[in-house]
Predict the 3D structure of the following.
Amino acid sequence: DAGVIQSPRHEVTEMGQEVTLRCKPISGHNSLFWYRQTMMRGLELLIYFNNNVPIDDSGMPEDRFSAKMPNASFSTLKIQPSEPRDSAVYFCASSSGLANEQFFGPGTRLTVL
Amino acid sequence: KQEVTQIPAALSVPEGENLVLNCSFTDSAIYNLQWFRQDPGKGLTSLLLIQSSQREQTSGRLNASLDKSSGRSTLYIAASQPGDSATYLCAVRPIKAAGNKLTFGGGTRVLVKP
C-alpha cells in the first residue's frame, strides 16, 4: 500500500484565496483525521470522519474551515477565505477501526501571504 | 481535559547511549497510547501502540512501557544511532473521547551525535 497520500505537498497562496487540501486514506481504513501542526500550538486535531461521516469537528477553528469525505477513498479540507494565521502543516491520517493505530500522510505545508 | 506532557523538550546524547523519553498524561482513563517519530519536514511515523491493558510493547531496539495509574509512559531506545535523531511524540486516546481522538504531547527533539 502507498500509505496515506496528500496533495499538494506545498501550497503558497495569498490572503483571501480559497485553499483545498486533499487526502487519500489507506485502502480499507474507515477512519480519517485532519490535523494541523504549528510551532506554537503543536499538533491539533481539526476533524475526524468514521465511515465517511464527520464525527467530531470541534477542533475546526472557525467557519472558514470545512471538510468533506464524499467516499471512502477521498477527503478534502477547504479554507475560504485563507488568512496568514492559517499557515501551518496540515496532516491527514487514517486508521482501521476506532481504536487502532493512526497512520499519517506526509502533510501539506501551507503558507498564506 | 486530558493534557499530555513530554519532558525534556530536547535531548542530545552520544551515539551508543540508551535513550529514555518520558510522556505523562493527566487523566489515567485512557484506551491506548501511541508513540510516533517525526523527521524534519515529514509526517508522523507510528512506532508503537500500547493498549491500556498492556504494560509494555517492544519492537527491535524500541521498548515502550505504560503505567496507567501514575499517568506515565516511557520510550526506551537502546544503543542509539545518529539515524534515531528525530522528534518523538506520544499521544493518548482517552476513554471518554468520542471515537479515536488522540491528544498529543509537545514532543521531545532528539539529537544523537556520532
In short: DSSP finds no helices and eleven strands in chain B. Residues 61 and 111 of chain B are 17 Å apart (CA to CA). The longest strand of chain B covers residues 30-38.
